[in-house]
Fold histidine kinase.
Amino acid sequence: FLFSATAIGRRDHNITGVVLLLKDITQLRELERLKSEFVMAASHELRTPLTSISMSIDLLLEHASQFLPEKEMDLLQAAHDEVHRMKIMVHDLLDLSKIETGRIELEFEYVPVATLFEHARGIFKGQVSMKEVSLTVDNVENLPLVQADTNKIVWVLSNLVSNALRYVEEGGHIRLSAERVSNHIHISVQDDGTGIPPEYQTRIFQKFVRVNTQEIGRTGLGLAICKEIVRAHGGTIWVESDQGKGSVFTFTVPVAERGERRRTTI
Ligand code: ADP
């Protein structure tokens, strides 16, 4: 059920009543579930033919330059880029629909934030030095452990760092930090890149939303997946950004409580 309440008032601002609305959304939820099931089946089926198309194009690109004119080679390269984009999209759609239909099992463990940061730093070591970006990691040794599925939260962190790397200039700066707020840890990825226009700051967490739709190889699904993973941990994710100055993406994860480690299906 979806529950909402609206106050009704007179012009003198005195409240005279309240409208309570209780809406049965069982059918809506069922429709959403069926939609995710369909997306999951379709993306699963698309993977095999896409892989063979991609392999054929790769082979042609490797050997056809001896007998194909430059224009045809350009067409082949364009086909290669589009198939690559489709492969990423199908992979991301499959991941997202698996989360939405509860096919992914989360394995919670007690983990230090420093470990999560170390994983993320390791993944981007090469790219960071190639782009001459500095990636700094705050000292988080004094924070309590968090209750999280390490792989999934590292995936979220990596996705945020990968985006930050894409939108910072050469010589730019990315910072990973964390702080305790009540019984959650707020984990932030800050960059001094292009920033995000205000009208996009909430929308970018929706599926397929991209600020610049011309970007090659992007799907607009990364942040939607991050949001689902964080939600499954009982947390939230948001961005604060100044156009031209940079962005700070923050998500929350619960502090580890003593007792049973949870095992949840999302
Ligand atoms: P994609 O996988 O296509 O990058 P995301 O869901 O990860 O999609 O991001 C959606 C959009 O949000 C991106 O296309 C980009 O416009 C914007 N965005 C995300 N992170 C940043 C960032 N750190 N700085 C500027 N823009 C960003």
About this structure: The mean pLDDT is 90. The chain is about 45% helix and 25% strand. Residues 96 and 225 are 6 Å apart (CA to CA).
